[in-house]
Amino acid sequence: MTLLVAEGLTIVIGGRQIVHGIDFFIEAGRSLALVGASGSGKSQTCLAPFGLSAATVTGSFLFDDVELVGAGEEKLRHIRGRDIGFVFQQPLTALTPHLTIGAQLREAWTQAGAQRPSRAEMAAALDRVGLDRPGERLDQYPHRLSGGQRQRALIAMAIAHKPRLLVADEPTTALDAVLRTEIMALLRRLTVEQGMAMLLVSHELATVAHHADDVAVLHDGRIVESGPARQILGAPKSDYARALIAASPRLDGPAPILGPAGAPLIEARDVAVSFARPGWRSGRLEAVAGVDLDIAEGEAVAIVGGSGSGKSTLARAIARLGPIDSGEVRWRGAPLPSRKSMRPHNRAGLQPVFQDPVASLDPLWRVRDIVAEPLRQLRPDLVDAAVAARVEKMLAEVGLDPALANRRPSGLSGGQAQRVAIARALSPDPALLLLDEATSALDVLVAGTILDLLGELQRRRGLSILMITHDLAVARRLCHRIVVMDAGMIVEEGPTERLIETPRHEVTRRLVEASR
Amino acid sequence: MFDLIRRRLLTALPTLAAVIILSFILMRVAPGGPFDGERPLDPQTREALMSAYGLDKPLHEQITLYITNLLRGDFGPSLVYRDFTVTDLIARGLPVSLTLGGLALLLALILGLGAGLTTAARAGSRIDHGIMLGATLLTALPSFVVGPLLALLFGLWTGWLPVSGWGDGDARHMILPVIALALPAAGAIAKLARAGLAEVLGQDHIRMARARGMRWSRILIVHALRPALIPVASYLGPAAAGMLTGAVVIETVFALPGLGRYFVQGALNRDYPLVLGVVTLYAGLIILFNLLADLAYGWLDPRARL
């Protein structure tokens, strides 16, 4: 039986048409993945027909033979509450902060008119989605749970009223690589167990294709290719689908070409960082526990680990961007000053690029001034004309049109903004670039081009790179050596290929598994 | 939570001590004294009075004596109302002031939250603009302007309500002062609640609740209201204190026998123990209100619970 049929579905937001008459259908109990880059209209396709966005919908969207296009809010609300379960991208903010998990699960359970569940039933539901200590969780408030735990709780809520269709909009994008695989497998298992249909939305073709029956590839509001997942992943017909598959970093495939490594640049010994526990609780939280790390000139090193493993804290401590309790960091053999006594020439050698390109650029500044700022601060010897010439050269080097120099960040796409951030980091000619999840907020295609750019810059300039990521496949694209962290300690390190082919530690094995 | 209460009580003591000592000194620095009437007393009577009340002793001795008595619950004698102790006067005035302030706070909350919810649910409509304009006007008008205006309108012109006196707790006497005291706070609460709700309604968990097909009214009350009240709660501590101090003016305008009137009279007459007694009491109440506001904060946001 066909549960959902979209025909000529067209979506307009604020006078701009973002979905152009697409057709797709989902059989009861089967799953369809809508895949595309950001701005392809995939999220609106799964939200707007159900009345969850301000968009205008035309065409036809039949759910269980009921036309949803043109239906009133009250009718849509009723259908959402009875037959549909939703899972969204941001597990950290999707739970009501002042209600316990139990109270929210009970509300979701009874939303379609079911009997109030007993505690045992609710605990069993949490257990089914893989939440540990389910009985205890019922009385906890959302802020006690980690991102992955909250997403599991949200999934339990989404399916508690036994919906016929589960709509999952980028359900794993905000999670690390290991969790991503686990949550996708969980969704797949639940749809099979409960006989639910699933509409999955994602920008990662390679990941979702393993967990959906059918795939529709969306590009600029049009479906460019659709069919069984295996077929599209194995033998894509459209150029766009081929590009999507090629862009997602993989553990197999040809090894990237890397530049040669030279003399030691950074030698960090026994670095320890701890944080005061929040509130008035006593004791400290040990984030990094006595870690050594070396980086050579021209060498790219990745610190890989799950959320909370201490990878960012370690990198920030070494780069003097965050606190450090004890330990020594040497830069080309000489001790690197503490965070407060870093001088301009120290900072110039070591520049960061962060995860969210838009948040790390001042919205009121023009691109020209953003890229010039480190030069003004760190290279006071340069005159204005020299600064302007350098800004132009930097923009060209990161592949940006010099005409963009007058724009403000709001006028840039995510990829362009990240290129500006890279140009800014490179402008004082650093020896080391610190990349803190620099591509994980970007689309697969865009992230792919940024990784290519970084690899090229690394080879051409003999740049050292310290990369922080949760994804081994991303690290492999760029790095000579990988350091795996877990619970504040380095559990394994080694040359990229060796580490991926013969992982020795359990954590590494799980990371490799997650990136397959 | 008990930890919070314990800590607050510990910090309350030095705060109270500082308030008492400072007010004690300030009162004495002000020119004039309790026995400087229009007709000067002869020096001998004056001497006798000063020594009877211990006012001829060095200042630090007087402070020590006062605090020692205070610890025993004795606020001392009134220097002007000779037949009464300060405790007597407070016992007469406090119930009136607490009734007035409590009712005004309740009314301000009901009006303010009602207006905040209504406007947030209909954001951008005419009702929204109208109510918010009214709220802005109310916050801009202090109670000593609203009070006489109300008295003029409903008391003098229409003759519906009494404008002066307590009438031994007759409800009709309370209406105007309570409204005059409540309206400015109601305006502020309405604006805070409206802004808080507008912020919360844009958050992800509201979209999640909408996706679940919850009714809009349920989303507002169950999922949005509590976090939206956090700014209101942080305002309530100072607001409750404002009700007390604002009551000083309102009690004078409506000639109510509350604490405020004794406070004003005491200050004018340099009735040192009376003023000090009222100040100490106010300080204690303000500390208590701020503690209550903090406890409310913890109820509204579990992340603030420690």
* Strands of chain A, total number: 20
Output the structural class of chain B. mainly alpha
- Write the CATH architecture name of the largest domain in chain A: 3-Layer(aba) Sandwich
Number of domains of chain A: 2
Q: Provide the low-confidence segments of chain B as ranges.
A: none
Task: Specify the oligomeric state.
Answer: heterodimer
Question: What is the radius of gyration of chain A computed over CA atoms, rounded to a whole number of angstroms?
Answer: 25 Å
- Classify the fold: give the CATH topology of the largest domain in chain A: Rossmann fold
Per CATH, which architecture of the domain at 95-256 in chain B?
Orthogonal Bundle
Largest beta-sheet details of chain B: none
What fraction, in percent, of the residue positions of chain A are helical?
25-40%
Poorly predicted regions of chain A are: none
Query: Distance N terminus to C terminus of chain A?
Result: 34 Å
Average pLDDT value of chain B? 84
Rg of chain B, Cα atoms, Å: 24 Å
CATH superfamily of the domain at 95-256 in chain B: MetI-like
| Fourth-tier CATH superfamily name of the largest domain in chain A | P-loop containing nucleotide triphosphate hydrolases
Distance between the termini of chain B: 7 Å
Shape of chain A: globular
Can you offer a commentary on this structure?
- The complex is a heterodimer of chains A (516) and B (306).
- Chain A is α/β, with parallel strands linked by helices and 516 residues long.
- Chain A has 2 domains: 2-247, P-loop containing nucleotide triphosphate hydrolases (Rossmann fold), CATH 3.40.50; 264-362 and 428-515, Rossmann fold, CATH 3.40.50.300.
- Chain A has 19 helices and 20 strands.
- Chain A has helices at residues 42-47, 73-83, 101-110, 119-128, 134-137, 147-159, 177-194, 205-209, 229-234, 239-247, 311-318, 344-348, 367-378, 384-397, 414-426, 444-461, 472-478, 496-501, 506-515, and strands at residues 2-13, 16-27, 31-35, 56-63, 66-67, 84-87, 165-169, 197-202, 214-219, 222-228, 264-276, 284-296, 300-304, 326-331, 334-335, 350-353, 432-436, 464-469, 481-486, 489-495.
- The two termini of chain A are 34 Å apart.
- Chain B has helices at residues 2-29, 43-52, 59-71, 86-121, 126-140, 143-157, 171-201, 204-211, 216-228, 230-253, 259-269, 272-300.
- Helix content of chain B is 76%, strand content 0%.
- Chain B has a domain at 95-256: Orthogonal Bundle (MetI-like fold).
- Chain B is built from 12 helices and no strands.
- Chain B is mostly helical and 306 residues long.
- The N and C termini of chain B lie close together (7 Å).
- The mean pLDDT of chain B is 84.
- Chain B is globular.
- Classes of the chains: A alpha/beta (516), B mainly alpha (306).
- Chains A and B meet through helix 2 of A and helix 8 and helix 9 of B.
